[in-house]
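User: Structure with glycine, tokens only please.
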Amino acid sequence: MRVMVIGSGGREHALAYALAKSPRVDEVLCAPGNAGTASIGQNVEVKADDHDGLMTLARERGVDLTIVGPEAPLCAGIVDRFEAEGLRVFGPTKAAARIEGDKAYAKQLMKLAHVPTAEGRVFERYDSARDYIATRDTGVVVKAAGLAAGKGVSVCEDPADGLLALERIMVDRVFGGAGDTVVVEELLKGQELSVFALVDGRTIYVLETAQDHKPIGDGDTGPNTGGMGAYSPAPIATPDVMGTVERDVLVPIVDAMRNDGAPYRGLLYVGLMLTAAGPKVLEFNCRFGDPESQPILMRLESDLFDLLESVVAGRLAEAEVRWSPRPAVCVVMASEGYPGKYQSGKVIEGLDRVAAMKDVYVFHAGTRRVENVAVTSGGRVLGVTALGEDVADAKGRAYEAVEAIHFENAYYRSDISDKAICVPR
Ligand code: AMP
Ligand code: GLY
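Assistant:
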């Protein structure tokens, strides 16, 4: 079988890595991929937003299954186009991807299905949203309803800051049309948890758990990023919590989407806050999480191709999935300055040394190859991931590898997974 992975980040490298392990997969194409995916399969210079180019590629190269990594092509309807041409593709349709692409829709659906989420209201008019925030005396979260590259959410302890955030979205239009509608909701407190479920329209299979580290600095300080590291499993995801999420969130939302004529097929990512009143949904994403996919997929022992194929075929109920009991820790090495301005084009050294380390794998996120040398090309550069006998062991191995890798102005957090080590089991 020939598979194609669309995208160029750490998530896509992790997908390509797991797919390449399948005895049924002969070749992995990555479009456009990065320096890491180039060592697994073949990179093809077609970008994720070039749907025509991707379809031509799939047809000409006889691709048996295409896996779409990022949300933008999914929300723009790439799956509908592939399916209309009879090309097999993993991911939700445009209508189902709205669960991520339109936070107002997601909020409405959650209300309809009685899914626990932050109290919130949807506004299309600046004045109404402003008047609403002005009456609040506790923290608010202001969200642009559309896709804003992960930057559309402002968490404001002081409602006055919420007014400023609203002005930036609706008056200054910093996210363009993505901010035509806003969701204003209560600020929830607690630990965050990401839950990943494969859904074939009806059947739900919850993957092993992971916890992300969004803030840039140690101890969860500083601005939010796309994620500075992750570990799997997440001890806060107790059987009790997972049971509640499945019963109160996944089952009702998947049913509601099917009843709404937008059955969900693909990977459904649930971002949750574990509050004193139980788990509440912060957001849904229509794709694998990044960097969480990296430690999760490193723990997958069964065949990812079989699993994704069973989702596409609506046969998920028959799938058998095995996981390594060993935990995995992923430390993101970023370019200094990220999530703000940073420099690119720095030569990455030490990858060959790390390649020889047992149970360690370096997923590339923002890299490209220049004359056979890997150079940095993004904010998040590498996801250095290790399996261990326990979390502390996995953490030790991951950081040993991080220290063996060098590029100018590399930055990383030093406390990834400490939360898992400190939480009593
Ligand atoms: P979202 O894209 O909606 O998940 O928001 C991005 C991040 O903002 C989340 O991962 C949380 O850290 C934070 N966030 C979103 N909604 C809330 C909320 N209602 N209360 C507290 N934090 C939130
Ligand atoms: N790690 C957060 C995300 O994938 O959205």
